[in-house]
Design a protein that fits this description.
Elements lengths: L11 E5 L2 E5 L8 E7 L4 E10 L2 E6 L11 E9 L1 E4 L7 E3 L15 E4 L10 E2 L4 E2 L4 H6 L2 E2 L6 E3 L5 H11 L7 E10 L1 H10 L1 H5 L3 E7 L4 H20 L4 E7 L1 H14 L13 H9 L3 E3 L5 E9 L8 H9 L2 E4 L2 H5 L12 E2 L2 H4 L9 H25 L6 H18 L9 H12 L12 H6 L8 H7 L2
Parallel strand pairs: 8-15, 13-18, 13-19, 14-15, 14-16, 16-18
Antiparallel strand pairs: 1-2, 2-5, 3-4, 3-6, 4-5, 7-9, 10-17, 11-12, 17-18, 19-20
Helix pairs in contact: 5-6, 7-8, 11-12, 11-13, 12-13
Length: 471
Amino acid sequence: MTSWSEVEYTAVRELRGPLAVVAGVSGVGWDEFVRITLDSGERRYGLVLEVDRELAVVQVLEDTSGMDPARMRVSFAGEPLRIPVGTGWLGRTCNGRGEPVDGGPPVFGRASAAVGGTPINPVRREPPSDPVLTGVGVIDALTTLVRGQKLPVFSVAGLPHLELALQIAAQSTVGGAAFSVVFAGMGLTHPDASFVRDALEERAAAGELVLLLNTADDPVIERILTPRIALTVAEHLAFTHGHHVLVVMTDMTAYAEALREVSAARGEVPARRAYPGYLYSDLASLYERCGRIRGRSGSVTVLPVLTMPAGDITHPVPDLTGYITEGQIVLSRQTHALGVYPPVDALSSLSRLMRKGAGPGRTRPDHLDVAAQTLAALSRARQVRELSDLVGQDALSPTDRRYLDFDEAFSHRFMDQRRDETRPLDRTLDAAWQVLLTLPRSELALLPTALLAAHGGRDEPADGEREGAGE
């Protein structure tokens, strides 16, 4: 329970967008929790954003609409915003401030934690290991998500990134261990918010889901708070209760836009594309809260989803995200146009920690070899496709034509799956083998000979020998 100071300040100098400037303050620190009492008796809350001598800039969580600077009282808690934490969050649906919207009582917990979190001591960090299997074949096979990793999804407007995020949240598993999902939606439309609730209903009913929904018409400050509450809840579930927790945050571009709006209201000097100069450190303060701690059985894995304005991967939000995180899953308009779901651009996607969570003893002994050969063959197939567009298929060698067949089979027989389908990894890797064996054995140089023989790979004559034999 927050103990409020008996001192109330009434000298509110101005209201500026979502901010209130309070004068004459004493002993107030950055990030303190604030209670604002209106003349009507209504209470709103905020956080101290900045303190300059006797002036405090307060960001109001419920926005400043309807507030009169001359008719309000401000009290400071003397501590940062704290929320109750524990398993009581599981199965609940709340707004972006953590207030229930499912008709249930407020969330209670035996302990509380500051939403700003506590940095993990680097000495106590354990390297990410073991997979989080999403049930999405192309991700599990080629860009395996590892417990404790931060792996973003880069998308553009019009692609099914929300559907993919929901599918991952609904069907991810970690192989029998206690597993929970925290889904933080930011800037969602009301139809999208309803879609999220419906899609994750089964996982919520099973007591494995925490759902935080910030809609586009909610106060902008709430959007900044939402991912911090989500990560605070996840950290306690992981490091106190031993759960493996997947935190899905969408859309981080909406979060960055909210940060830019608050920065403009504060009158700060803008940096790239009017975003604040501290955008990198702010994003890092969120992404770096994932991981594993030595001596603790749980883990926090983060999957942020962001849309790239105009498809520009050099935009500040994806650009800075790429510096902080350990790879990326990139969605492609071209793949989407083929009617393939999920429309992942496999050659642009990468999981830098995949070798920590896949292979012998973790997934399947042939996993890493199959993934490497599949990506190498896909790269060659794309080169052949470009050559075919220039010279025509008739000018291609028989082997090159086989690569075109491989490209087609990769998209429609390996990658494509239903949006409600949970595909086991064994089935995915078996499909990868079937697609790879459409190529001559001589083209599968990255696969060990014994492994290739065990899966029915056979020697075929080279192009020149085949053509000569028919003369």
